[in-house]
Amino acid sequence: MKVIQLIWGIVILFISISCTNNTEIYKSDIPDGSIKMRFNVQERVSENLLLEIIELQDNRCPVGSVCNNAGNVQVGFRVYTNEGISLVTMAFSDFCYGDQNMDTIMGHAIELVKVTPLPFKDEPLDDPQNYTVSLKVQEL
Q1: What residues does each domain of the chain span?
Q2: Of the candidates 64, 70, 36, 66, which has an alpha carbon nearest to the alpha carbon of residue 51?
Q3: What CATH number belongs to 29-139?
Q4: What does each of the 140 residues of the chain score in pLDDT, given as a tens digit?
Q5: Global pTM value
């Protein structure tokens, strides 16, 4: 009888451990403090700054292809601040060289962290609505 109780105790413990909400697995691909943005959607990234992606051109080498150049993604932002509206274009490369994925916009350091999904050979993603851009913002 005690063996059966021990086995049931282990089973219940195993089930309760496996059912916990482990969100760290899902957050591992995006660094803490990142903001996910979609095309044509305004996002408040700080108290004084709103960003909107208005243009997105993916020139990265598609997965399954052989290319001379890894390519990059050009992301055009409409920037809204207390001082007015401006347009800024930033480049993102999966193979970041130095500060290529960073820029300073209206007193904020902006870093493009990730652009998903990756293009695949024979499966173009021409519609910018398909993309998610993750960025980090730090007020200077």
Answers
A1: 29-139
A2: 36
A3: 2.60.98
A4: 677 777 776 766 556 555 544 434 333 344 456 889 999 999 988 888 899 999 999 988 888 888 888 889 999 999 998 888 999 999 998 876 666 788 888 888 899 999 999 888 888 777 888 899 999 988 88
A5: 0.71
